[in-house]
Design a protein that fits this description.
alpha/beta, 389 residues, single chain, Rossmann fold, seven-stranded parallel sheet, 2 domains, six-stranded parallel sheet, 13 strands
C-alpha cells in the first residue's frame, strides 16, 4: 500500500514519538509498502539524515520558546496547512496519525473526504494530561470531544500499554486497538563500557511536563547531596516545567544540578553509560496513573539502571526486569523513598558486567524495531480482514 504517516514531529527531533515513528516507517518499507511522512521542519541546528526509501515532506511550523511544537498556536500552525497538504498532495491508501488530537481530527475530516482509512497512534490520552495544565471545564470538555472524535473515526488504533486501552474504553471509544508496546532504538542505544569518573552523577533524560512530577528528584537530591556532595544531577531535555525546575533548584540551594537542552540519541548514550542511574517519574493522581514511562527502555538498552518513582505499569515492568538482572528500582512518590533509592545505587553502583547483562536483556526483549513490526502486523491484520476502502 501507499501509506502516509502524519506527525508534527519526526526524526531527528529527539523524542520517544520521533524514534517510534521512524522505526514504524522503516518497518513499513521492509514490508513492501511505499511510505511518505508529512511532518514539520525540525528545530534549528538539527541534522537531517532521512532514509532514502522514505519520502519525508517537511513544512515550516511555529515552535514555543523551548523549541517544541507544543501549544494551541503551534498545533494550529501544523494542522491547518496539513489539511491542504493532504487534500492537494499525493493520496495514500492508508494514513497513520500521531497525536495531538487536533491533528487526528484534521486527518479524520480529510480522510473522510478522500474516502481513505487511517490508523490512530493512541500513545496516551491527551485530555487526561491536560488536567494538569488547565482547570477550564470548557477547554477540557472540548479537548475530550476532539480526542474522541479523532479516535472513533480510525479504522484501528495502536498503543503502548493495556492501561491506555482500558482508559479509552472508559471514555466510550470502541475502535479496535492493539497493544504493540514500545522499546529502545538499539541501533543507537546500546551498551558502551563506562569510564571511571571522579564526579558521579544521576541523569534525568527526556521531557519534564506537569504530569511527570520531576521536581521530586530535585527535592530528593537536595537531601541526598548533604551526605554525598561529590554527586551531581543532570537534566537533559525540555518541557513546560523546565523554568520552574530551575527555580526550585536555586531555591533549594543545590549548585550541583545542571540543565542541558535536548540532544540526539547518539550524544545521550555516553551520558547514560556513565551515569550511576537514570531517573524517571510519574506524578500520582494527575489523571495519568496508567501511563508507562518509555524512557526506561533506552536507559536499560545502554545498560544504565533506572530509579523510577510514581504509579503505573512501570512498577511491574522494573520488577520483572529485576528477576533477570539488576535493572533498577521503583519506589513511592515521596522524597524519603527517592533518597533511599539514590543511596542504594551510590552505595553499590552497577559494574560493567551488570550493565552489559542489562543491555543485552533490554535489546533482546524490548527493541523499538520489534514494537514497530507489531504495528505493521496490526495494520496488515486489520486491512487484510476488512480491506482498505
Amino acid at each position: 500500500m501507499r501509506i502516509t504517516i502524519v506527525s508534527r514531529i519526526y526524526d531527528p527531533e529527539p523524542s520517544a514519538a520521533s524514534f517510534m515513528l521512524s522505526a514504524i516507517a522503516a518497518a513499513l518499507v521492509r514490508a513492501g509498502h511505499e511510505v511518505t511522512v508529512l511532518t514539520s521542519s525540525p528545530p534549528r541546528g538539527a541534522l537531517i539524515s532521512d532514509d532514502p526509501d522514505i519520502r519525508v515532506r517537511r513544512a515550516s511550523v511555529i515552535r514555543d520558546r523551548g523549541g517544541y511544537v507544543r501549544g494551541y498556536i503551534p498545533y494550529l500552525s501544523f494542522d491547518i496547512p496539513l489539511a491542504f497538504r493532504m487534500l492537494f498532495g499525493p493520496r495514500a491508501d492508508l494514513y497513520v496519525v500521531e497525536p495531538p488530537p487536533t491533528t487526528g481530527a484534521v486527518v479524520r475530516v480529510i480522510t473522510t473526504l478522500l474516502g481513505r482509512p487511517y490508523v490512530y497512534d493512541a500513545a496516551d490520552v491527551w485530555s487526561d494530561a491536560a488536567r494538569m495544565t488547565t482547570s477550564s471545564s470548557i477547554v477540557l470538555s472540548l479537548l475530550r470531544w476532539v480526542e474522541k472524535f479523532a479516535m472513533q473515526g480510525a479504522k484501528a488504533a495502536v498503543t503502548i500499554s493495556q492501561g491506555v486501552v482500558d482508559r479509552v474504553r472508559e471514555l466510550g471509544v470502541v475502535t479496535p486497538t492493539t497493544v504493540v508496546g514500545f522499546g529502545a532504538d538499539t541501533s543507537v542505544f546500546h551498551y558502551e563500557p563506562t569510564s571511571t569518573s571522579d564526579s558521579p552523577y544521576f541523569v534525568y533524560a527526556g521531557s519534564f511536563s506537569e504530569w511527570h512530577g520531576a521536581e521530586i528528584f530535585i527535592m530528593a537530591f537536595a537531601a541526598f547531596s548533604e551526605r554525598h556532595p561529590h554527586y551531581s544531577l543532570l537534566f537533559v531535555g525540555n518541557g513546560s516545567e523546565k523554568e520552574r525546575l530551575k527555580e526550585l533548584a536555586q531555591t533549594a540551594g543545590v549548585t550541583a544540578i545542571e540543565f542541558r537542552d535536548p540532544i540526539p540519541g547518539a550524544e545521550l548514550v555516553p551520558i547514560l553509560a556513565n551515569a550511576t542511574a537514570s531517573l524517571a517519574s510519574l506524578k500520582p493522581s494527575a489523571g495519568y496513573d496508567y501511563a508507562f514511562t518509555s524512557k526506561v527502555y533506552s536507559s536499560m538498552a545502554v545498560g544504565c539502571p533506572v530509579v523510577f518513582t510514581g504509579p503505573g505499569p512501570t512498577i511491574p515492568f522494573i520488577a520483572e526486569a529485576e528477576l533477570s538482572q539488576r535493572s533498577g528500582v521503583a519506589v513511592a512518590y515521596n522524597v524519603s523513598a527517592v533518597v533511599g533509592a539514590l543511596e542504594t545505587f551510590a552505595a553499590a553502583p552497577l559494574d560493567d558486567k551488570g550493565r552489559r547483562r542489562l543491555s543485552e536483556w533490554a535489546s533482546k526483549n524490548h527493541s523499538i524495531r520489534a514494537a514497530a513490526e507489531r504495528v505493521v502486523d496490526a495494520i496488515s491484520a486489520t486491512f487484510t480482514a476488512g480491506g482498505t476502502q
